[in-house]
User: Fold this.
Amino acid sequence: MDKFQAANQQKWNELAEVHYTSAGSDYGVEDFLSGTEGARDLHKTELEELGSVKGLDILHLQCHFGLDSLLLARKGAKSVTGLDFSPVAIKQARELAERAGIDAAFIEGNVYDAPELVQGTYDLVYVSWGTICWLPDIEAWARVVAHFVKPGGRFYFLDQHPVTLSFDDYAPVPHAPIYDYFHKPDPISFDGTDSYADEDAVLRTKRSYEWTHPVGEVVTALIDAGLQIEYLHEFDTVAWKALAFMEPCEGGLYRLPEGMPRLPLSYSISARKYL
Assistant:
């Protein structure tokens, strides 16, 4: 693990602790466990696009502490396996599964090492929200994804649009882009002690590193890895307050204020593996 991934892992260890334990966390672990009405579910976009997962073997890459993995299990998946590089998150995922009485497997490891850590192939490989910006090599990621999709199986991806990443997260008013849309080998460094899921949290670790991956490069990488694209959809919503001036809207999502031009804030890809 290089210094960039090590710094990101340290940051995500802290985020996992906050998101799992804080009463102010948007993840709402206790509500999930108790089945409280209005408890966190998958967001509107993936609920509409995923369709039924009943009877599917699912691999959730970059699963954080596994809440969304367990939501998939509750929706009738035959089996769910999650992988994340944060040891804190994986410990919490295993604990959460036990507390919820859900049979799910959680594996600690870097996503690039997944073929050596996870066995088998899957009906659905699932990757969503805040994932590939933490990865330097999109082609290697695509090969990992394709490795786990069984013939006839599906890959579903949903994340913030790289257009969103070109703006300053913290600027209080609309502004021009300040970061490149196109990928560079060297990461962009960020200093911040906040959490996207708990506005009152203050982290100890400031520095983290991200990479941008244009939509065209993501699609091409998946095709080159052997997957056939079913669709590419773009949306004017995103799952968290990615920019300080965004406003909440339906389905637990956020969008730009009324009167601003509509920009792509997130996008999804569905792809299949055929022989």
User: Anything to note?
Assistant: Residues 192 and 206 are 5 Å apart (CA to CA). Residues 3-272 form a domain with the Rossmann fold fold (CATH 3.40.50.150). The chain has a mean pLDDT of 95.
